[in-house]
């Protein structure tokens, strides 16, 4: 379950305010040769050779054994038992005294300078020798230590690394130089381990000549725009068609065009940025029979940005689209396949000025009132007798490049094989101050500060912290996704949270992009997170007031998305934005440090606050004994989903099907969640083995909502809540709604498969929560 669900828990004070107890475990020391299976005792006579059963040869075989005094033997046994009892009592009282001292320290009743011991598990599952661990810090002290060390000056220095440079395109010189710089910085911080991940990926670059957009009238070509920017993974070629404007390019926008009876076959669709990703807009246009697509930025208060043209990508997915489901460690080793998410039509971005020129030539119906939104002269299409068309030429070329992901780790002293990952995109088509510079600067600062706490304060997290710098993020989280694909069989059992640092400062409003479900009000979730940042007065963050607001969506362009929807790893993504006035320079060649500072005068304090939030989340997750899970989040969402299905019972029964099995699976999940909650409440929190087992059960929840019946190569985003495809609960609901509207329009076989996929995925998640198969409720 994701951290955001934990924060929504009504018992959030336990998650972010309660202080955990410490514990110390003991184990038998191993032999130097690795054998710790037994302790051997020998008699002195055993050292001599010869004789029967170790007896000396000079003793006669018939010599009677020495006579033993029964009273003496009884006395010896009683004395031994008494000594053992005394030793046990002394050891117990000593252990209890140390535990009480630890608990008093963690409750804040005294200064704690404890140095506990920690046990480890070797690769074969055996428990290793206890070794001295770092001193235990209570949470308030740890939080204050982080805050005191974070430096606004260092953040500024890190961000200024991008000044005076035009591009950090993935796999090119500046991207590689920055990768080497980050690698050297990680080494200088003396992290426990630093390494590179190389991937050979297929990207798209602009061709030798620029892409072009023309207005065609009476065989005359009028060049509208020939921008430097391009859309990666667009189909190359030239197409011509009548222009049709479809607002944001959402499904409901296309439905309104259909209601207006405007044919969209062989057209060039125009839409504005926002609401959904460019790739989703293009996919919707292609379904309507469009031959090409154009996108312009949404209007903003920054008039000089009217000429800006953003870069983008049109792959409806993440990662290298030419090795779907496979890691691109060497793409020549994999079959020549292509992602089904490629657009297969030419796509280009244009400026607002170019869009205005196109609208000026269109003589059809005006835009719907709700579509205009500061777009002057907005038109939907051309009239039936108009000869005006749009010609689009795309000259993009495919290139093979090597990209580098850079990693550094601080290993946990107790569970080094469990880790939280903090990551940031490094590459950008332009200067990328906001797109990649801010996140990279924060990543370096957190690595520096937390490693400094380890070196100078004898601090050590219980679990590991990984710092990751990704390349090719502009092309759809390629670097991050290829890493996930390379270790897909193990990462979900190791990584318990991904914290995304990309585009963390775009304005002055603190916006949490947590992927929450079943959350009815933003306040329920935001307030505990704000308290985590700033204490009791949550409107005071850092040295200034800030409005805190939460948002639900997390889209394909967010690097956190594949962690959740592909790998089943909980995610956190947040930052400062201005929702009503987007940062127009983002994704363009104008995303410079100067423009970003003009956007917000508090750039560096805001970066400091983001670093503090991300650092506190990471430290808290690696500090406490247990992970936190709001089991009610998914339980309530599944119950809400079931309530939406009730009205379709009769329609489903008419097809000879039933929804009962799906309801049973939902009930199984709720009972399993209740059982896990009881296990957590009744467990011995000082017992490390028990706590680890409970944590592992929690970590399974998100992963087990990935449908196990689908191929990650064909359908990578298998999550039934947040994925993409017919296996999702949303798709099932839409199909049932269609069944109610028009029974003949629904394929019964497909509906039956959808019900089966949903039922057994939910049942599988319930089984994972239960833990042991003999405790499973077999009501299904």
UniProtKB/TrEMBL annotation:
Its main location: membrane. Keywords: Cell membrane, Disulfide bond, Endocytosis, Glycoprotein, Lipoprotein, Membrane, Palmitate, Phosphoprotein, Receptor, Signal-anchor, Transmembrane, Transmembrane helix. It comes from the Eukaryota. The chain crosses the membrane at residues 73-95. Cellular uptake of iron occurs via receptor-mediated endocytosis of ligand-occupied transferrin receptor into specialized endosomes. Endosomal acidification leads to iron release. The apotransferrin-receptor complex is then recycled to the cell surface with a return to neutral pH and the concomitant loss of affinity of apotransferrin for its receptor. Transferrin receptor is necessary for development of erythrocytes and the nervous system. Acts as a lipid sensor that regulates mitochondrial fusion by regulating activation of the JNK pathway. Homodimer; disulfide-linked. Belongs to the peptidase M28 family. M28B subfamily. This is Transferrin receptor protein 1. It comes from Hirundo rustica rustica.
